[in-house]
Design a protein that fits this description.
The chain contains 5 helices and 15 strands. The protein is of the alpha+beta class and about 260 residues long. It starts with 6 loop residues before the first helix and ends in a 10-residue tail after the last strand.
Length: about 260
């Protein structure tokens, strides 16, 4: 069951969310050819340390504990890519997901960045994925249940002839990075079988559509973490932490004037 947060708690989460937004803006100028994903990760790790924030991703349990403070996924990599010596090249798309805990509260956000100029189809992939996240935020203040939002997200992506990744979903967030409820970007059997939830003030969720040019199917690489599209076609990923307040949706991982990426 989802946990509803008070206005005071949401204000504390906003501080963590703003720090995550600042981390993204710190690394945006680094998205250039010849920069390594390890260099990007090290920059975020140092930034969080400077602000006494705890990275959410480093050490997450698995067959191998996740070794970095960011997930950096390139081109056909969908999510959970491990930073390292790989260098960016012109035409890549780079999905960067990171989060932190500040004073006991979490923030989590992702964006996909272009390395130089992209093909028209890949640029459209980024645009559609960013737009479907914006659509979900808008609809959160106009619908009564999440399933209504998820259906519109799914329809929007399919109308643009792309596919929604169904292997991963968004999540509740607060004291911990992953809390109830699960937040799919599509209408699933889970939503139909009682997994739906009401959109009421105090709800705080991380909404994170992942959209593929080709098939929705993914597979795991031998590093136990990196997820790639089965057909090798590009994937994009955008995420915000969003609170539903009495006055409507509030994005907690945007800039002080509502700026996104």
């Amino acid at each position: 069951m989802e946990i509803l947060r008070s206005a005071r708690e949401i204000a504390q989460m906003r501080k963590a969310g703003l720090l995550v937004w600042r981390a993204h803006n710190l690394i945006k100028p680094m998205i250039q050819p010849d920069v390594t994903t390890g260099e990007i990760d090290a920059t975020v790790e140092e930034f969080f340390a400077q602000h006494d924030a705890t990275p959410l991703f480093k050490g997450v349990p698995g067959t191998v504990p996740f070794p970095a403070v960011t997930c950096i996924s390139i081109n056909e990599e969908v999510v959970h890519g491990i930073p390292g010596p790989r260098r960016l090249v012109e035409g890549d798309i780079v999905s960067i997901d990171t989060g932190c805990k500040l004073n006991g509260w979490c923030g989590d956000a992702a964006a996909t960045y272009a390395v130089g100029r992209l093909s028209p189809e890949t640029q459209r992939l980024l645009d559609v994925t960013k737009e479907v996240l914006a659509l979900s935020i808008d609809l959160m203040g106009k619908r009564s249940h999440w399933s209504e939002v998820a259906l519109e997200m799914q329809k929007f992506v399919r109308k643009n002839r792309f596919s929604v990744v169904e292997a991963f979903v968004g999540h509740g967030i607060g004291r911990e990075m992953h809390e109830d409820p699960q937040v799919p970007n599509f209408v699933s059997g889970q939503l139909r079988r009682g997994g739906d939830f009401q959109l009421v003030p105090g709800l705080v969720i991380a909404v994170e559509p992942m959209v593929n040019i080709g098939t929705k199917r993914v597979r795991t690489l031998d590093d136990y973490w990196t997820q790639v599209t089965v057909d090798g076609k590009p994937s994009a990923h955008f995420e915000h932490t969003i609170a539903l307040t009495e006055s409507g949706p509030e994005v907690l991982t945007c800039g002080p004037k509502g700026e996104s990426w």
